[in-house]
Specification:
Blueprint (H helix, E strand, L loop, with lengths): L9 H13 L5 H9 L20 E4 L2 E3 L2 H10 L7 E5 L5 H9 L2 E6 L2 H13 L5 E5 L12 E6 L8 H6 E12 L4 E9 L2 E10 L13
Parallel strand pairs: 3-4, 3-6, 4-5, 6-7
Antiparallel strand pairs: 1-2, 7-8, 8-9
The protein binds S-adenosyl-L-homocysteine.
């Protein structure tokens, strides 16, 4: 890690890890990543004192950094072994990108807002993330150049699975995406077997809308 973690926020970080365990997160790799990542560097100054609450926080431009429990649950559901190539849609604050970068081989992350991405890029650099490539663009179309992906995680709510993402998922791969209305979605894990996506609904969530050619109109 490029910047050593000081004693700052250590107690708060430890309490967050305990809260995640209490809520049922068991994957030790995921818990360790939460224990070691400085979430406070991924949020704006105005909400920094709340960095280690189990809550979603505003990150500007009407977007939010997801609640830690939702990130933990999502990343745990992907059951990463460290060897995967992962596509993330909706980089946002970059916190989940950092989680994924520790738990997989390579991360490809697409964010629609170039402004947000310009803010996130140096933070990922600062915390020592070296295996993540970032792209400003419409993530509903995936990132064809680097497909297929062993895992795809979408961090914004979609009306349905974007066909491009289904196509860019490797055989045996896992796709995690909130699907439903603009207001409320089912976080759903799809597994690809014989070219067909098989859904497992996980939990009800409220994500910001996935806006793009194969998502919602803006
Ligand atoms: N995991 C991020 C989530 C941020 S909110 C975090 O916790 O910080 C969801 C993000 O998805 C927003 O930054 C939004 O700009 C982005 N987004 C919405 N539609 C998108 C699209 N079609 N392609 C890429 N990113 C998109």
């Amino acid at each position: 890690m490029a910047r050593a973690l000081g004693p700052e926020y250590r107690g708060a970080r430890r309490r967050l890890v305990e809260a995640l365990q209490d809520r049922g997160i068991r994957d030790l790799g995921v818990l360790r990543a939460f224990d070691e990542l400085p979430r406070h560097l991924f949020v704006p100054d105005t909400v920094r004192h709340r960095s280690y609450e189990d809550a979603a926080l505003p990150i500007g431009g009407g977007q939010t950094i997801s609640q830690p429990y939702v990130h933990a649950r999502a990343v745990e559901a992907l059951a990463l072994t460290g060897r995967e190539r992962v596509l993330e849609i909706g980089t946002g604050s970059g916190f989940q990108t950092a989680l994924l970068s520790r738990l997989s081989a390579q991360v490809f992350s697409v964010e629609r807002s170039a402004t947000l991405l310009d803010r996130t890029r140096p933070v990922l650099q600062e915390v020592g993330v070296r295996n993540a490539s970032l792209l400003a663009g419409d993530g509903t179309l995936g990132w064809r150049e680097f497909a297929p992906f062993d895992a795809i995680v979408v961090s914004a709510g979609a009306p349905d699975v974007p066909p491009s993402l289904a196509a860019q998922l490797a055989e045996g791969g896992r796709l995690l995406i909130p699907v439903g209305s603009r207001e409320e979605q089912q976080l759903t894990l799809f597994t690809k077997r014989d070219g067909v996506l098989h859904p497992t609904p996980l939990t009800t969530v409220r994500f910001v809308p996935l806006v793009g050619a194969e998502g919602w109109a803006s």
